[in-house]
Write a structure and sequence with these properties.
Order of helices and strands: HEEHEEEEEHEEEE
Helix content: 10-25%
Distance between the termini: 72 Å
Structural class: alpha+beta
Strand content: 25-35%
Low-confidence stretches: none
Number of helices: 3
Mean pLDDT: 86
Number of strands: 11
Strand order of the largest sheet: 3-4-5-6-11-10-9-8
Shape: globular
Length: 161
């Protein structure tokens, strides 16, 4: 009986041919004051972004004719890396963690954490940071619904629409 069990235990893997497939999961952590996502900075090259965050859902390559440069999409997390323009965009369905809970925050509550904005508009505020620029966009309710941050100062920053 022992011999049979030993033989069965050795042969069982030969008959079990199911293959497990793992799906990549990225737990995104945005450090708002450092301007990084899991340590990835806005001015990283596409290969650096994909190496550090391999769970991207799609990509638009950087070409001379692409209006936004390159874009690496993380649609599952509602976050986008604009590698040609050196900025990161976080939209309202972001599923990760923000070091400062800005998404959904009321406009008047953001100043306590970030100070006064350098530039203001009806729908957005741009804050000068040590790494570059942080832009908060507000919906009709006056709450943050999109965050962009760049390694570039606001004077030379160009955003894709």
């Amino acid at each position: 009986m022992k011999r049979f069990l030993l033989l069965f235990a050795m042969a069982a893997p030969l008959f079990c041919t199911a293959q497990l497939k793992s799906s990549l999961v990225c737990n995104m952590y945005v450090d708002v004051l450092a301007g990084t996502v899991n340590g990835v900075e806005p001015d990283y090259l596409p290969a650096q972004v994909k190496k550090n965050l391999p769970c991207f859902t799609s990509e638009e390559a950087e070409t001379a004719s692409s209006p936004c440069g390159g874009v690496i999409h993380y649609r599952d997390n509602d976050i986008y890396f604009y590698t040609g323009k050196d900025y990161i965009e976080i939209k309202e369905n972001f599923k990760g963690k923000l070091s400062i809970p800005l998404m959904g925050a009321a406009r008047e509550n953001t100043f306590a954490s970030l100070g006064n904005p350098k530039l203001r508009d009806v729908n957005w505020d741009a804050f000068q940071t040590q790494y570059g620029t942080l832009i908060l966009y507000y919906g009709a309710s006056g709450r943050v619904n999109k965050i962009q941050f760049s390694s570039k100062p606001s004077e030379i920053l160009t955003i894709c629409n």
